[in-house]
Amino acid sequence: MHITTRLLSVFTLALLAAACGMATDPMPAPNGGGSGVIQGAMVGTGSQNMQVAAPSMSAATTTSANGAFLLTAVPKGAATLQFSGGGHNAVIAITPMVSGEFRRITVSISGNNATEENEQTETEFEGRVDAINGAVLTVASRMVAVTDATMIRKGGAAATFGDLVLGTRVEIEGTLNADGTVTASEIRIEDQDDDDADRVAFAGTLTQISGNTLTVAGLTVNVSSATVIVRGDTTLALADLMVGDRLLIRGIVQADKSVNATRVRVLPGEGEEEQMHVTGKVTAVDATGGTFTIGDTMIAVDAKTEFEGNGFHSLADLKVGDSVLAEVVKQSDGSLLAEEVKKFTPPPMM
Predict the structure, then answer these.
(1) Quick check: is 227 in a domain?
(2) Which pLDDT value is given to residue 194?
(3) What is the pLDDT of residue 271?
(4) Are residues 157 and 200 in the same domain?
(5) What is the pTM of this model?
(6) What DSSP designation does 341 have?
(7) How far apart are CA 149 and CA 344, in angstroms?
(8) 239: domain range?
(9) Distant-in-sequence, close-in-space partners of 268: CB < 8 Å, separation ≥ 6
């Protein structure tokens, strides 16, 4: 593994910061690496005030009153999560984490049994295109399906599948399926001139804002007009950030040990709900009741729900077996309401 002098200097800074009590958040790792982040929601009786941890983590996190949790410093390759407390003690297998991955999952729990609701598992990760087979890419050792509903962007503008050539560095957002493949909802083509060894991803608390400079996890983070700042699916301005926010930073390490941020994601606070994506095959449609089901997940529609796709104008056009991507929000009673439903044709996974 190639580790640059710049990154070794960052690690030295991290050790000094920890020794001085400057920061306790995880520090960046080389080659686009870094610990991952899992944002989770638990459903089922007794899902609040439980301990959640992944292997090799130094400390667990505790679920909130509504079953939400946020795990930072999840090591690369982590393939299980443990849930304990409140009469439960369950371990579930998950698709192994890749470096710097951000994942959102929903877990149902009953007694000592926990199940991941795969049709709701979302992922965001970086890597280079290592293989192209039809409409399927291999990125970070994962097979990524590009569909007619996938948005491809480059420098903020629309791009095409033809722009995705071998070696292209990309950031993938999509649904992580039960078999470990990914259905991409968005692909962003990144700057190809940056050295992979200087790329970092890390999570930390925002402790200071000074002009266009942030202090996150004890590191200086530079924000420019090219930096994309998001919370869920919403694009933010630098002025929207607040001290105390938990951030996921992706960027490039500079000679002065600062990080030029390419992307900043605001992680949810305790009990904070965000828009979710649910992707998969439709297993049931109830036009009278105004609901449809993806896998085991029931989703309601209303007069404001938007439908996208050829000949797809309403719930009446949806059929069992259709592949769809639904942008949903969680309602006060825990049910899911679709804001937008897109129908797409998935490519075969080779």
Answers:
(1) yes
(2) 64
(3) 54
(4) no
(5) 0.83
(6) E
(7) 6
(8) 196-266
(9) 39, 68, 70, 274
